[in-house]
Amino acid sequence: MKIQIKQICDKAQGGALLSANEIRELFAIPALSEESCHIQWASRSISEKAGLAEIHGQVGVNTAACPCNCRFCSFAAANLIFKENQVSDLEYIIEQCLHLQEQGANAIYLMATANMNFADFLNIAGEVRLKLQPESIMIANVRDIDYYEGLALKDAGFTGIYHAIRLGEGEVTRISPRKRLETVQAAKKAGLKVGTCVEPVGPEHSLNELVEKTIIAREIEPVFSGSARRISIPGSSLKQYGMVSEASMAHIMAVVHLAMGPGISGNCTHEPNTPGAIAGANLFWAEAGFNPRDTVEKTEASRGFDIKKCRDIFKEAEFPVLQGSSVFFARD
């Protein structure tokens, strides 16, 4: 094994921040090589020291022909999959949230498209909050917001948001990276915690962009980070590039984890998979309702995993799962 790779891993395991060049060196290592196995082991060792794995549940509350046209998303108007605006029945949304809670989700996410009416989303969130147990943690996965909208989310019962500056942001999406970062800053100013991810990774993404987005994720100072691959959407212009394998994603996710530094204990990957958990992923999502990686209205009958399936994957990876509310979102 190359001695410099072990030295970089040792540095990360010791709690020091890796430089951009060191992160690039780790990304450049071929997946399934001896060095990659060591990188993945180092990532897993950090996750084990951080504590138990978590499983969060997400319910997509609406769909639309979204004008943001993120080419990796089934909601994008350009992808011609969901052609009409549609909001799920409140009863269904509440039912799915309660089901995830009963199954043991450590946090409940409500996800909406970028063009959903914000007041309507807050009304739905308020009704869900009333039905969930008081200790249940709610996270919002919504469009870009300003400070006052962040306060409104907090008042509605949310603890935090999920928000990422995606790979290809501003090129394969109609959203500027600056706008995404402004949302992160507004949310944190409003008292919301932020989870993020280096995503959605495709075979066409360069080492430079992976390094850039990893450092951006680190500078957000999130409660969790990680990495997830792009799922090919029928009709998308990105489908021509194919998909990154789970083996390669385990390597990429492990590098991201080593690059985060101390204090960022959560490390996600998506969709849930055993190689990712073995390589240090300690956060999965179960999903219901609309899903930007799916082409049906109820992803729980298609791509979406339930809590039990996620727990079974962690079991296969010999990673025990937390019972109770999320520790990632409880930490300062």
What topology emerges from the helices and strands here?
Blueprint: H1 3-13, H2 20-27, H3 34-50, E1 54-60, E2 62-63, E3 86-87, H4 90-103, E4 108-111, H5 118-131, E5 138-141, H6 147-155, E6 158-162, H7 177-189, E7 193-195, E8 198-201, H8 207-220, E9 224-229, H9 246-260, E10 266-268, H10 274-278, E11 283-289, H11 307-316
Parallel strand pairs: 1-4, 1-11, 4-5, 5-6, 6-7, 8-9, 9-10
Antiparallel strand pairs: 2-3
Helix pairs in contact: 1-3, 2-8, 3-9, 4-5, 6-7
Architecture overview:
- It is a single chain.
- With about 325 residues, this protein is of the alpha/beta class.
- About 40% of the residues lie in helices and about 15% in strands.
- It contains eleven helices and eleven strands.
- It has helices at about 5-15, 20-25, 35-50, 90-105, 120-130, 145-155, 175-190, 205-220, 245-260, 275-280, 305-315, and strands spanning about 55-60, 60-65, 85, 110, 140, 160, 195, 200, 225-230, 265-270, 285-290.
- The longest helix has 17 residues, at about 35-50.
